[in-house]
Amino acid sequence: MPILTDIRDHDFFAPYFKMGPLVGERVVTRWMIGMFFSPIPDWVDERLHKMSAGELQAVIDRLLDAKSLEQLL
Questions:
Q1: To 5 degrees, how large is the angle CA 39–CA 35–CA 3?
Q2: This prediction's pTM
Q3: Helix (H) or strand (E) run with residue 44 in it
Q4: I need a surface site. Which of 8, 25, 36, 55 has the fewest CB within 10 A?
Q5: Are 44 and 25 in contact (CB under 8 A)?
Q6: Which DSSP category does 57 fall into?
Q7: Could you tell me if 26 and 51 are in contact, meaning their C-beta atoms sit under 8 angstroms apart?
Q8: Is there a contact between 33 and 44 (Cβ–Cβ < 8 Å)?
Q9: C-alpha 27, offset from chain centre
């Protein structure tokens, strides 16, 4: 079944995409990490803030296989 909604139109995510692509990617990446590893320690936010778009994509790519935050980041 196809997904017919665009994440950029989602009530939660839309404001972050309007802030800029990199800010939006950080917010979405942090949210995804929180779904697997909660609570999120402060060092994770600090590390995510320093990452480029390519580095954030690499984190997302590893997310399903990571067994810990240390392995993920």
A1: 160
A2: 0.70
A3: helix 42-50
A4: 8
A5: no
A6: H
A7: yes
A8: yes
A9: 5
What gap in Å lies between CA 59 and CA 36, rounded to an integer? 13
pLDDT (mean) for 39-46: 95
Which one is predicted more confidently, 36 or 10?
A: 36
The structure tokens listed for 20 are 């800029």
DSSP 15-30: HHHHH-HHHHHHHHHH
What is the per-residue pLDDT for 9? 80
For residue 40, the 8-state DSSP code is: P
Reply yes or no: is the peptide bond before residue 39 cis, omega within 30 of 0: yes
Supply 1's token pair.
């079944």
Contact residues for 14 (Cβ-Cβ < 8 A; gap 6+) = 8
Is residue 24's pLDDT more than 60?
yes
